[in-house]
Amino acid sequence: MSHEYVPEIATDREGNEYEVQGWQDDFYGGKLGFWLFMFTEVMMFGAMFLTLAYYNTLHPQDFIEASASLNRLLGGTNTVILLISALTMGLGLLKMRAGDIKGAKLMIWATIILALLFLGIKAVEWTAEYNHGVFLGLDAMQPGNEHSMPFGKILFFGMYFTMTGLHGFHIIIGIGLMLWLMKRINSEKVTPDHHILYWNIALYWDIVHLIWVFVFPYYYMIGGGDIVGGIAHGH
Amino acid sequence: MDTNTTIDYQVERKRYYKVLVGLLLLTAVTFVQPYIFHAGTFTAQMFIAVIKAWLIVMYYMHLKGEKLIGTMALFSLSLVFVFFVIVIGVDVANFQFGAESHITAAAEHTAGAAHAATPAHH
Amino acid sequence: MSKSYFDETHCAIGHPKSTFMQWMLTVDHKRIGLMYAAVMFFFFFIAVSTAFLMRLELFAPGQQFIDGDTFNQAFTLHGVIMIFLFIVPGIPAIFGNIVMPLMIGAKDVSFPRLNWFTFWLYILGCIVAVSSLWVGDGFADTGWTFYAPYSLTTGTNVIFTLVAAFILGMASILTGLNFLVTIHRLRAPGMTFFKMPLFVWGIYATAWIQLLATPVVGITLILAIMEKYFGIGIFDPSKGGDPVLFEHLFWIYSHPAVYLMILPAFGIMSEIIPTFSRREIFGYRTIALSSASIAGIGYLVWGHHLYTSGMADIAKTIFSFLTFFVAIPTGIKFYDWIATMYKGKIVLSPPMLWALGTIVTFAIGGLTGVTIAMIGVDIHLQDTYYSVAHFHYAMLGGVVFLLFAGMHYWFPLVTGKMYNEGRAKIAFWVLFVGFNILWFPMFIAGYLGMPRRYFDYLPEFTIYHQWSFFGAVIFISGLVFMFYVLIQGWRKGEPSGTNPWHATTLEWHMPTSPPPLENHSKVPYVDFEPYEYHHGEPVVKFDYETMRRID
């Protein structure tokens, strides 16, 4: 139905004609709408970073020590994986716009595989942390027992599991969106001439990556290098 | 404004790869920074992250050249920044009750909640 | 017989034949707005009844028929319904949907199916919120503000309300998103931003608050759920968590939320005043930009809810200054409206009565807000009946009164009929008088020390509670009578014609009354200002078949 839309014409007093922008077939509108949605994600994760910075300010040393205890190798590998997946996603969109539908689908599959790899490594990290006794509900994160961590570390890990968990949730949604995109391409609802859905899903994947660009250094890297002293606050 | 029908595939493709290389380099810098520069890790890390974010937003997300959306993005980011300045910079940074509060470092070392009565906060 | 939007519609899924399914699946912004209105007023009356129950309990000191715990649940229910189910969706959900696209010459919003989905998301949120009444320990007893740490430890169903508020927040965000894209993309050719009616400016500024502020409370609710069920520590002092952080995060949304409530209402005022003064509005540009500045500055004042919670002194000072500052654009609007009426030909129809009444009540609401923006004063008046009176004068006497004004103004547009104007005026006076008797004594009681959310009180406050109860009886009678007048108008009123008020804005230039499904017969070219009057009559006239100007 949307492919047959014919825009209306408005005429002014001199007889000049103007094409009326309808809600149908509005590529820019679709793009704008999705950017607005992404701003809500920025506000959401921004508020979580605010919470993190709040307790970082109250417990600077605990945060550095907790950060140093995270597995930088796994975290760093995930950073690279997500980075490459952003490339594959973008290349897929480019191929679709250029008419190479087969190439586009290949790129989507590549992105999905990289996303699953990311989730797998995250699972390994969480399992390792669980085995070290650091997980939601375990003794280390409760107050007043012999394994209790100091306040700053409890708060660090509370936010760590919350934020990486929510981020992982967004990756799962992303995988779902990509599978749905495949379906729409196969049923020719998404084509080189009508690809707003692909555009927006690529934007979604970019913002998922963007969030990780800040999550990784704030959690994994602030305890890097010299643990004792020498770490200035950037406020 | 309608679908971008004319695209220069090779130019766009090269751009994607150039940005990728930039991002990978910056990621490498992220890793080595604490060992080369011992001080200012937090600031340096956030600074690198901001540059990476700028590259992603401008090129991967095609924000370069988008005036309206760019302005909106700037407004939203400024708002988040202001929240940080006020809550972290003005409020928590000037935390007045560090000595008596249960949640700050001083109280942690006075083993548990051994205060007889919580002092009236104001 | 030409068809109106009641006779035919577009649906999200398929082409249902039954009228019921056509309403359930409609994507038409006009029908969606009406459905929001029906559901919202249903919950409004539940919340009013809850309030009446509280007033009844508070008629005399000591327990009458509700115990303290139930009373806590009652004011929580009242607050949650009034704020999340009624006043936040509020004017945008009803008139933003019905009228805004008509005002800009559009055929619908930018994403009609999203609009349909958003309505049902709202319904889901309502169901989740109210269902907690019958589950476990009953409705939450934390107050609608859910402050940690009590909200984390109480056994009542806080989780239901948190989830409901999150879902309703999502609906608010999606509405704002839809309206933002609509206003940017679908304005008629020639209609620049500074040719838009001021109601659209109000909706636009509101949409920015809906979009950017709501996610903050959304994540706060999720973090509260994470704290309550997974013990992440951020709001739990026994793990180093700071309840003041919860207050910061909560009010970063909830303060802009009140601007989200009042900005569309001010937009309605800006429509009614020129129409019933029969002249162009004074200071169009200033009013438009003041809406934008209220939205912008409004993001920065939330700390005035935290004066007594333990913030740093320097933070309190900055918030106090910014709070005074944000009052200025509102003041500008008031002066512009009064200047519009000066030398105008005032027509005291019911919409104008409501608008003028609101100028009085909101002025009181706004000014009393400024008094408690002072830190020293707020130390004494925080959490007393003074605050309660302040925000009811602002929200009920401001937002809801203007919602009523909008209902009386756009009634002929939506229904094609006219209500009995004489009776509508009587309803206004009953409500106006009842309102002031109900709420004004509370300023005094609060000043003298009566705390809010208390189910019992010292005998010296009895007289104020009794006056309030008396006012409540009058007010509720007025409400019932007002709705009776409007419903009778819809059932049995005279046909109104397309422009009974002889207004200028595009929603009154419909080919039929009520409007057809596809709105204007043709999208006009807009080469005129929104409020062009000459000697008390509209300048711009249209041929309604071609939408070409014939003046």
Describe this structure in words.
The complex is a heterotrimer of chains A (235), B (122) and C (551). Chain A is built from 6 helices and 2 strands. Chain A has 235 residues and is mainly alpha-helical. In chain A, strands 1-2 form a two-stranded antiparallel ribbon. In chain A, a hairpin with a 5-residue loop joins β1 (9-11) and β2 (17-19). Chain B is flat. Chain B contains 4 helices and no strands. In chain B, α1 runs antiparallel to α2. Helix content of chain B is 63%, strand content 0%. With 122 residues, chain B is an all-alpha fold. In chain C, β5 (542-543) and β6 form a beta hairpin. In chain C, α6 packs antiparallel against α8 (158-185) and α10 crosses α15 (385-415). Chain C starts with 18 loop residues before the first helix and ends with a strand. At the A-C interface, α1 and α5 of A face α8, α9, α10 and β6 of C.
Fold blueprint:
The complex is a heterotrimer of chains A (235), B (122) and C (551).
Chain A: E1 9-11, E2 17-19, H1 27-58, H2 60-68, H3 72-98, H4 101-131, H5 151-186, H6 196-221
Antiparallel strand pairs in A: 1-2
Chain B: H1 9-36, H2 41-60, H3 67-91, H4 105-108
Helix pairs in contact in B: 1-2
Chain C: H1 19-25, H2 29-57, H3 68-87, H4 90-98, H5 100-103, H6 112-131, H7 150-153, H8 158-185, H9 198-230, H10 243-277, H11 284-298, H12 313-341, H13 350-373, H14 375-381, H15 385-415, E1 417-418, H16 421-447, H17 462-492, E2 494-495, E3 533-534, E4 537-538, E5 542-543, E6 548-549
Antiparallel strand pairs in C: 1-2, 3-4, 5-6
